Amino acid sequence: MWGHNPGIRDYSAREWSGMLNGFYLKRWHKFLVAADTAMESKRDFDEARFNEALCAWERSWAEQREEYPTQPIGDSVETAERLWVKYNKKLTVLD
């Protein structure tokens, strides 16, 4: 989305509504599929070709007109507490 310079691709990374699921998840999926395809076919990963295709996809994504929620959905405090209970013991082992 920053032109033809993939070196600054995530210069202004955002976690706004829609970005994680609608952009970053799809972008990671494209990368993992391309990397997996290269490994399965025993070929080198063609980074230049991948970046060219990814830049084209990013441009088309930026031009879309999908609407995303502008207000929070759900209870973020309840979600944080639920995740704390679920992962707390695993995280304290890392200390």
Automatic annotation (TrEMBL):
Pfam families for this protein: NAGLU_C
Domain Alpha-N-acetylglucosaminidase C-terminal: 1-84
Family annotation (InterPro entries): NAGLU (IPR007781), NAGLU_C (IPR024732)
Protein name: Alpha-N-acetylglucosaminidase C-terminal domain-containing protein
